[in-house]
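Lest this sound abstract, we let one protein speak, letters for residues, whole numbers for local backbone shapes, and leave readers to judge:
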Amino acid sequence: MEYLPNPEADALDEFFGFKAQLESLFGGKIDLVETRAVRNRYFREELEETKVPVYAA
């Protein structure tokens, strides 16, 4: 996940609120991962191959 954080909002509330809204929208559990948090190169490669853009500006 990549996004521009809101400086006026709590980062954890924003992250988990966004996750909850996406789960509600798609009707199930989702994995929400910040790109910069993934350090394992094999996991990163798997993410790159299987990621699904939800919105692109």
